[in-house]
Amino acid sequence: MTDYFPHEKETPASPSVPHSREAEEAVVGAVLINPDVYYDIAAFLKGDDFYIHRNKWMWEAIEKLKEKRTDIDLLTVSNELEKSGKLSEIGGSAYITSLINQVPTSLNAESYARIVKEYSIRRGLINSANEIASLAYKEQDIEKIKSGAYDSVEKAISYSVSSEMKPAKQLMSEFYDHVDELSRLEEDQDPRIKTGFIDLDKLLTINNGDLITVAGRPGMGKSGFATSVALYNVIEKNKSVAIFSLEMSDLQNSSRLISQLENLDLQKVQKGKLEQHEWPRFTHAVEQIANSNLFINENPDLTVPQIRALSKKIKSRHGLDLIIIDYLGLIEGVGENRTQEVSYISRNLKKMARALNVPVLSLHQMNREIEKRGDGKPQLSDLRDSGSIEQDSDSVLFFYGKGEVSAINHTRPVKASLAKQRQGPADKTIDLIIHEKTTKFDNAATVHQRSNQR
């Protein structure tokens, strides 16, 4: 077929570079025969997906014609290529005619396009591997190599994500099935993540793909809250939870987990000074956590691409129901200033939640400005100097109101303000209790009930 066409100027590369000349020609030919199939294909296929230059140029000419709402046929495509000076380079109108004549059937246009797309993804992954190899040879900083490797692979993988539109009929059918399934479940069978705090769970709905920001001043118990939520889900609900602890070491995290689970004094656990009768409880806590689906990373220099890659690995091997970030301000970002860096981080945490279809609970340290107010209650406006956290978050939970420690049960009250929630009520405040000796959070009503029973 190509005997009478000019020599093909393909991208300089090894002959083994993945591509299919037949599939590329069949896609273009099918659209020339039946232009209506273009929209089904254009949802996922782009000009850069073509390896052979003349096929890429023809596809780009078709795209331009569609943008101008011009009919597609031999004449209009030839004219568009003539305008760009590419018609003679592809072999003239004779090459276009040959594509029309050799297409087996336009009914399989989408199948041909899928083949072209798959080869494009393969080439992208090869390019990614080459970029990583080049980094490994030239870059001295191992952390920059790792970060660059994650970014390169992420780019290659994300490029393959389809952007096809769903018709309303399909969307409503899936939504109906989802609601119908939830309606048949008992309250304790709801598969969605819960915090374990009754009053809070009545207000806060956590869906897969949500970014939940938990913010407050230092010392308000954010890390203790996150640990309580993690333990509730891995022990009580048998969920899989990943904690990225950029602030605390493995030993510190382990101490908190054991202390909260068995109500053991945190200081005693950390120093190994347990009473004789406390050792069985300590051992029991160790066994429970060891047999759970809890995963912890203590690397203080993580980037969002690294967190995403590690989370994806956990999900593929063990399943993953919740990701906890402690805390956002310690993640390495990209930008000319810290505000831009925080915006980059929060935006990409939200993208990660959506891509993995897993909720992300992100802790955030707030500045001292809120302490100048009389009640010390944080507001959403307090987050506006922190990049785009407010906009990126599906829900925002503020902790404030550090009360006095009870001399009787060593607890102190704290207020949790649900300042934002896209899918439910907001501007609501509930009371929680922190056990000072364990950092464990509890329902305020439950603690008061125990006190009254005494």
Short description:
With 454 residues, this protein is an alpha/beta fold. The chain has helices at residues 21-33, 38-42, 53-67, 74-83, 87-90, 92-102, 109-138, 142-158, 168-183, 198-203, 222-236, 250-262, 266-271, 279-290, 304-318, 338-356, 389-392, 444-453; strands at 211-216, 240-245, 293-297, 322-326, 360-365, 395-400, 411-421, 428-435, 440-443.
Description of the molecule:
- 49% of the residues lie in helices and 13% in strands.
- Helix 1 (21-33) crosses helix 6 (92-102), helix 11 packs across helix 12 and helix 12 packs across helix 14 (279-290).
- It has two domains: 1-162, DNAb Helicase, Chain A, CATH 1.10.860.10; 189-453, P-loop containing nucleotide triphosphate hydrolases (Rossmann fold).
- By secondary structure, it is α/β, with parallel strands linked by helices.
- It is built from 18 helices and nine strands.
- The protein is elongated, with a radius of gyration of 29 Å.
- A nine-stranded mixed beta sheet has the order 3-2-4-5-1-6-7-8-9, sandwiched between helices.
Defining key terms:
nine-stranded mixed sheet; single chain; 18 helices; DNAb Helicase, Chain A; 454 residues; alpha/beta; disordered C terminus; Rossmann fold; 2 domains; 9 strands
CATH topology term of the largest domain: Rossmann fold
Q: Mind telling me the CATH class of the largest domain?
A: Alpha Beta
* Total DSSP E strands: 9
Succession of helices and strands = HHHHHHHHHHEHEHHHEHEHEHEEEEH
| CATH evolutionary superfamily of the largest domain | P-loop containing nucleotide triphosphate hydrolases
Content-based structural category: alpha/beta
